[in-house]
Amino acid sequence: xxxxxxxxxxxxxxxxxxxxxxxxxxxxxxxxxxxxxxxxxxxxxxxxxxxxxxxxxxxxxxxxxxxxxxxxxxxxxxxxxxxxxxxxxxxxxxxxxxxxxxxxxxxxxxxxxxxxxxxxxxxxxxxxxxxxxxxxxxxxxxxxxxxxxxxxxxxxxxxxxxxxxxxxxxxxxxxxxxxxxxxxxxxxxxxxxxxxxxxxxxxxxxxxxxxxxxxxxxxxxxxxxxxxxxxxxxxxxxxxxxxxxxxxxxxxxxxxxxxxxxxxxxxxxxxxxxxxxxxxxxxxxxxxxxxxxxxxxxxxxxxxxxxxxxxxxxxxxxxxxxxxxxxxxxxxxxxxxxxxxxxxxxxxxxxxxxxxxxxxxxxxxxxxxxxxxxxxxxxxxxxxxxxxxxxxxxxxxxxxxxxxxxxxxxxxx
Length: 413
Ligand SMILES: [Zn+2]
Hints:
Blueprint: E1 3-14, E2 32-41, E3 44-47, E4 56-59, E5 64-67, E6 69-71, H1 83-90, H2 95-100, H3 105-114, H4 117-133, E7 136-142, H5 149-163, E8 169-177, H6 186-201, E9 206-212, H7 220-232, E10 236-241, H8 249-255, E11 260-263, H9 269-277, E12 281-284, H10 286-291, H11 299-305, E13 309-311, H12 325-336, H13 340-346, H14 349-354, E14 372-375, H15 381-384, E15 391-396, E16 399-403
Parallel strand pairs: 1-4, 1-5, 6-7, 7-8, 8-9, 9-10, 10-11, 11-12, 12-13
Antiparallel strand pairs: 1-2, 2-3, 5-14, 14-15, 15-16
Helix pairs in contact: 4-5, 5-6, 6-7, 9-11, 12-13
Zinc ion is lined by residues 73, 75, 240, 314, 316.
């Protein structure tokens, strides 16, 4: 029996009431930040108070204690980076030209094809470790850089292997419609995916199918098809929509039972109210918006309408090589005019719900997995000190997995 007690915190972030699957609209503001402690026993949260008898004692004086952060939209595992492309983008070279020069999603597919499994996993494990040190205790993996059935299956297998090698909780999404592979029409590619779906999904424990709906990728008819494939197999539907242009994909996604619609920079004003009512999360990706010079999603309007607001890094080598959820929270607060509490809800309980894990993670409640982060300041400093790493200690499953150099004193002698 192992036990860990956090005592003397200036703030412990607690949900408005236990058992909530998510916090709609501005309900994040009903979370509380009172002084206190947390006790973990055998990997789960045992009590919302400290226990002087616990084996491991964590001194949280002056600190905020949050549930572990959840990154529900990443493209791990991928191979290599595309820094030269970013420089071109900044200089004003259009994406179509970058793609013509061999860049874009196809260049990531090429790098993935050329890199041995061990090297892909090495890069992904390094990034997962970087995320852990920034407070991320659960994250999503996606396929989508294969662009052939064999390569997509290999990427799903690599995602499965990655999940077995990291301390974090994980979920795997098959991004079956990312870019249209050469030699296929969009319809032909979806025919091929549909015919091979059982074989593809046998490579990993997949919980959702995803698609990229954009003029350079797939259309709303493809979204419906992927939705039908997901429903057929009891998987969730997720979709990259309204990133670069407005295609009115949100009503299609909601009608097909989507768990989330992600990006939304160009979402139609009429569809904001729909997301305010639907049980479909609005996953906003402000670091992708900034680095890709996109419009800001209507984050304030979405929360005011009652949407399930979520934030994620979109970690990928093209549009968002970003691992830090604290940084994403800071961008969201400024860009969407959210409160620090709303941003906190969006990277904890609400993000866990998107991954289907909010009954076991995403908030500090007795019985949930003992994933927590201890910050060097009150929560309000996270968005305010943009770019600063606020994470001193990370606990996963009741075990200390990261201590920031200089913060060893919090664990005693
Ligand atoms: Zn993405």
